[in-house]
Specification:
Number of helices: 16
Strand content: 5-15%
Largest sheet: 10 strands, antiparallel
Structural class: alpha+beta
Order of helices and strands: HHHHHHEEEEHEEHHEEHHEEHHHHH
């Protein structure tokens, strides 16, 4: 009997404990709390219970928390509901699971949130967006490159055309003047490359717009240099600039005479604008022809030509009937004519003052002629310059024959003495400074030589000799001062 009681008492205690534990676990899982708070073994033990709770959430609203006084038969029904596995497919309904998950959160937390909707594929129309203009592959995208290539091609074409035109003009001039030059000069076209003077019979091209021709071997002149200075037709920028400011080609002739074949005078003739410019820039015209340019109408020349002359006698001697005829018939082609026995070129502009010596001078004849056409020159226009070359040849002989009278010679010599005296006065202070500098350098070199001497006795003798020389120089200077005072009394 005692053994039976020992078996019955534990069974009764177990029966009383089952309803309480069943309610406790149902309450815990009904609240929908996360099962992650349990460890892995506990979660595996109640895995079926979690699935049963998901099924109950689909079929019915969440159960209310059971009261402690609930009868035992209701607890048995709940436990039976948990163990049921018939509605297994309903646990995987996605919509119900989403509703159950979102039911745990506060609805006010997602106010203003609009869930994304799936796009509708019923409308199969494609929307084609326009490509931006800067990404389009069209000619408009390369306008800068097109302009650069076009400008480069235009420059190259202008270079070739301009260079060829200047070459044609130069050869046209030479072909028309060659016979005259060869008849008056023994050598025509020396390029200066060989030691011996040889006649090449062709022009020497300095660059694309300047051609030179050297002639020599004539009585009374050392040589004649002819320069054909054409416009820079090969330069596109220069071509565009000439549209705003027209210019013309020029022929410059420089004849160097022997010292005995020209008398002492300075003379110039040309347009008023050219004379005013040359009087300011040229050294000899500014010193010997300081008066204002005079009109050439007195000698039958056009009014737009002016004359600068050192003496009136020179003008009367040069302006004979043949010379006036040449100038009058070709006055539109004459820019300037310049004869001078004191020609030294333009004024020397030095930063550190004037030069200490007079510039070297040569007896020179200068001619500057304008080619007709004002830039639109043709090869036929070069032939019209032939009479002017005849005038140059005639002038060389004319200047050789011209001689001043006694009074004109004395006046010319006085003018040259006056210019030299003025130059010496202007450079006197600079020459004194240069002489003082030379004396100081000489003294410094003497002292260094004495200091470098190793023998003391010889060094002492050198110092005494230097002192004696200084004493003698001082005595000579005092004697000169006394003589000057005596003469003044």
């Amino acid at each position: 009997m005692r053994s039976v009681l020992l078996l019955v008492v534990p069974v009764l205690l177990l029966a009383l404990a089952l309803p309480a534990t069943s309610g406790r676990y149902n309450d815990d899982f009904d609240d929908g709390e996360d099962l992650a708070e349990f460890d892995d073994n506990d979660f595996a033990e109640f895995e079926d219970v979690n699935e049963d709770q998901g099924a109950e959430a689909e079929t019915a609203p969440p159960p209310q928390r059971s009261a402690p006084s609930a009868p035992a038969d209701e607890e048995d029904d709940d436990e039976a509901t948990v163990e049921t596995e018939d509605g297994q497919d309903e646990f995987y309904d996605g919509d119900t699971q989403d509703q159950d998950l979102y039911s745990k959160y506060d609805n006010e937390e997602f106010e203003g949130y609009e869930p994304k909707t799936n796009p509708s594929f019923k409308d199969h129309t494609l929307i084609v967006r326009e490509v931006p203009q800067h990404l389009q592959n069209s000619w408009e995208s390369y306008y800068m490159e097109i302009l650069m290539v076009t400008g480069l091609l235009a420059y190259i074409m202008n270079y070739i055309i301009g260079k060829n035109k200047n070459s044609r003009l130069a050869h046209a001039w030479f072909s028309s003047h060659r016979e005259l030059l060869e008849s008056n000069f023994a050598l025509v076209g020396d390029d200066g490359t060989s030691k011996e003077a040889t006649s090449t019979g062709k022009l020497n091209q300095e660059n694309e717009h300047i051609y030179n021709l050297w002639c020599s071997g004539r009585v009374c002149c050392e040589g004649m240099l002819i320069q054909l200075k054409f416009l820079k037709r090969q330069d596109l920028l220069n071509v565009l600039a000439r549209m705003m400011r027209p210019a013309c080609d020029q022929v410059q002739i420089k004849v160097t005479l022997n010292d005995d074949d020209m008398d002492t005078f300075v003379f110039a003739l040309g347009t008023k604008k050219a004379m005013a410019r040359m009087q300011k820039e040229m050294q000899d015209l500014s010193e010997f022809c300081s008066d204002k340019p005079k009109s050439g109408a007195k000698y039958g020349l056009p009014e737009f030509l002016s004359i600068l002359s050192e003496m009136g006698e020179v003008t009367d001697g040069l302006m004979d009937s043949k010379m006036v005829h040449y100038i009058t018939n070709h006055a539109d082609k004459i820019e300037s004519i310049h004869f001078s026995d004191q020609f030294s070129g333009p004024k020397v502009m030095q930063e550190e003052g004037q030069p200490l010596k007079l510039p070297e001078t040569k007896k020179t004849l200068l001619f500057t002629f304008n080619v007709p056409g004002m830039g639109n020159t043709s090869p036929k226009d070069m032939d019209t310059l032939l009479p002017l070359m005849n005038m140059v040849i005639y002038t060389i002989d004319k200047v050789k024959k011209l001689r001043l009278n006694r009074e004109g010679k004395q006046k010319a010599d006085k003018n040259r003495a006056r210019v030299e005296e003025n130059f010496l006065k202007q450079t006197h202070a600079q020459r004194q400074e240069a002489a003082q500098t030379r004396r100081e350098e000489k003294k410094r070199a003497e002292k260094e030589r004495i200091m470098n001497e190793e023998d003391p006795d010889r060094q002492r003798r050198m110092e005494e000799a230097a002192q004696r020389r200084e004493q003698k120089k001082l005595e000579k200077k005092q004697m000169k001062m006394k003589q000057i005072k005596v003469k003044a009394m």
